[in-house]
C-alpha cells in the first residue's frame, strides 16, 4: 500500500538526514572536522547546503549526532551484560576487551575525529568529557565485578586505573590502527597484560 503524502515526506526527510550524517562521517574521517565544509557534506549527500543546516544544525550538530550514536551503541550494553555473568577475573577482562573491540571496529573513525577535534573546539571537548564520564562509569562496573569476585575492595582505584590504561580510548586503536595488529590478537594481548596488572593491584592491596 502506498504511503500517504505525510508518510512519504517523512520517509524522504529521514533518507536525506541519513545521507547527510553518512556524508559528514566519511568526510570528517577522510579530511578532518575543521577542513570539511557544509558545502562538501551537501555535495556528497546530494542535498542543498540549507538542508544540512535544517536537518542537523550544521557541522557541530552532525558531529554531536555521531557522538550520540557512538556512545549509545548496543555493544556497550552487551559487554556489561556479559561482565555481570562472569565468574572469573580473566573472563571479565575478556568481555571488556571484546566490547572495546566491537565499539572501536564500528565507531573508531568517529572516536578519532572527536579526539582530534576536542583540544581545539570547546563544545566538542565538553561533549567528549560527558562521554568519558559515562564510559568511566561503565569501566567502573567491570572493576566492581572484579572486586566482588576477589574481595579486595581496597584495590578499587588502582584496578580502575589499570582497566582505563588498557581499555580506554587509546589502547586498542594503538595496536590495531597504528601497529596493524588484527582485532583478535589485540584483544588477547590486552587481556593478558591487564590480567597481570590487575593481579598485581589485588596482591598489593592485600599486603597494604
Automatic annotation (TrEMBL):
Keywords: DNA-binding, Transcription, Transcription regulation
InterPro entries assigned: Homeodomain-like_sf, HTH-type_TetR-like_transc_reg, HTH_TetR
A Pfam family the protein falls into: TetR_N
Keyword Transcription regulation: yes
DNA-binding region: 37-56
HTH tetR-type domain mapped to chain residues: 14-74
Domain of life: Bacteria
Record-linked PANTHER family: HTH-TYPE TRANSCRIPTIONAL REGULATOR BETI, HTH-TYPE TRANSCRIPTIONAL REGULATOR RUTR
The protein's name in its UniProt record: TetR/AcrR family transcriptional regulator
Organism: Kineococcus endophyticus
Organism lineage: Bacteria, Bacillati, Actinomycetota, Actinomycetes, Kineosporiales
